Amino acid sequence: MADKNGFLLRIITPDRVFYENQVDMVEFNTTEGEVGILPGHIPMTVIVKPGILCIGEPEGEKLAALHAGFAEILPEGVTILAEVIEWPGEIDEARAVAAKERAEGRLQDKTPDTDIARAETALQRAIVRIQALK
Amino acid sequence: MASMRDIKRRKSSIQGTQQITKAMKLVSTVKLQRARASAERSKDYFTCMYDTVNSILRRVGNIEHRYLTAGNSAKKAVIVITSNRGLAGGYNSNVTKLVTKHPEWKKEDVQLYCLGNKGRETFARYGYEIKECDNDIVESPTYGDAAALSAKLLEAFAAGEIGEIYLAYTRFRNTVSHIPTLLRLLPVEVSQEEEEAHSGKEAAAIMNFEPEDSEALDMLIPKYVTSLIYGALRESVASENGARMQAMDNATSNAEEMISDLTLKYNRARQGSITQELTEIIAGAEALG
Q1: Which domain holds residue A110?
Q2: Chain B residues with beta carbon closer than 8 angstroms to that of A41
Q3: Is A126:A96 a contact under the CB 8 Å cutoff?
Q4: Disulfide engineering: B83 pairs with which of A121, B235, B240, B243, CB 3.0-4.6 Å?
Q5: Chain B interface test: which of A12, A17, A46 (most B C-beta within 10 Å)
Q6: Domain for residue A22, yes or no?
Q7: For residue B226, is it within any domain?
């Protein structure tokens, strides 16, 4: 049950305060699956997986591409310490598409030296960026 | 008394030096403004990360975790952040002294990761073991650089090659006050006073982890170490430019003082030589008449 005031969402990156506002809801992808957080959540720490971050503001929804970091969830607020996060306006579509193709190429013609984990992360990132643009 | 020509030469050489120090001061002032702005922007992340990890560790209580207990090795890895260039007053030596003058550390037990050429030079002279050295990081620190370094250190820590990890850097308090600081990165320490202050009100709230505690800490602590290194780099760069600005300001005003002193001496010598010439002319005229 959501109370009227919502909760305080803070998103901080190493270089700036990305977002800070009262929100009704926030959704993002974690290592354990997608989560949606409403006010009064039990204290929890989750690790972020690449995915779309959806901020439910009273006026409407806001999207961002969240790639890495972790979130500390408390009943009174959520703090996301994001290593990499972008608003859709900051994403270079051509670069994301190129990166996706490159990563797919690397995963297809695998050689013993291919760093599969790295290629997969790169692919995931590119996919999230492209999704965020839509 | 020195001759007029000598004084003049010395004066112009000091004027040349003064111009250089003045220019360096202006350059470091501009750099300081930029570095300070970026240090302040990343400070939020830095302090927030520190608070979050501390509060998480308080909530989980005493769990067994490889990052929370010291390794068996007596070796200590120390990341020392200095500058690449000198002329920054006591900036570099204050940081290196944290290591060389440490009361409990033996030289053999310390492994250094030098960021910045000045620190490397000093430690090489003292005969410390320099494990790694990277001079480009301090010019323009990026989060990726910090992540690469912390990954390397954590690997060595996990393999048991090192027992503790420290970070020596200069904290940037404000433009004139920079504090050389030694911080223990691993094992993570929860500060005692805070623990007491928080134990009352937060005892009821128990932190849940998704995934499991130890798995979550496995992922969190590398991020924590990286962010501390990154924050320290940013602050050190700001401190370096602040220290250089101060040092160059002092040098400029010293030069100013010397120049005014020499100007006075020069004028005296000039007056003396005119008086002497006059006396000679008058004496010559009198002898003829």
Answers
A1: 91-133
A2: none
A3: yes
A4: B240
A5: A12
A6: yes
A7: yes
Q: By a Cβ cutoff of 8 Å, what residues of chain A touch chain B? A: 10, 12-17, 30-32, 42-47, 69-70, 72, 74, 79, 81, 83
Domain identity same for A54 and A114: no
The count of structural domains within chain B is 1
Residues A103, A67 share a domain: no
In tens digits, chain B (289 residues) has pLDDT values of 568 889 999 999 999 999 999 999 999 999 999 888 888 888 878 777 877 777 777 766 666 677 777 667 778 888 888 888 888 888 888 888 888 888 888 888 888 888 888 888 888 888 888 888 888 888 888 888 888 888 888 888 888 888 888 889 998 888 888 889 888 887 776 655 455 444 444 444 566 776 676 777 777 888 888 888 888 888 899 999 999 999 999 999 999 999 999 999 999 999 999 999 999 999 999 988 7
Instruction: Give the CATH number of the domain where residue B166 resides.
Output: 3.40.1380.10
A:B CB pairs within 8 Å: 67
Please state the ipTM of this predicted complex.
Answer: 0.70
CB contact under 8 A, A74 and B205: yes
The whole model's pTM is what? 0.79
DSSP letter string over A10-61?
A: EEE-SSSEEEEEEESEEEEEETTEEEEE-TTPPPEEEEB-SEEEEEEETTEE
Residues A38 and A102 in one domain: no
Range of the domain at B83: 42-244
- CB nearest A81 (choices: B38, B48, B216): B48
- Does A2 map to a domain? no
Domain count, chain A: 2
How far apart, in whole angstroms, are the C-alpha atoms of residue A52 and residue A63? 7
State whether A24 and A75 are in the same domain: yes
Which of A14, A42, A43 shows the shortest C-beta gap to B45? A14
d(C-alpha B281, C-alpha B287), whole Å:
10
Q: Within a 13 Å sphere around the CA of B10, how many CA atoms are in the beta-carbon half?
A: 15
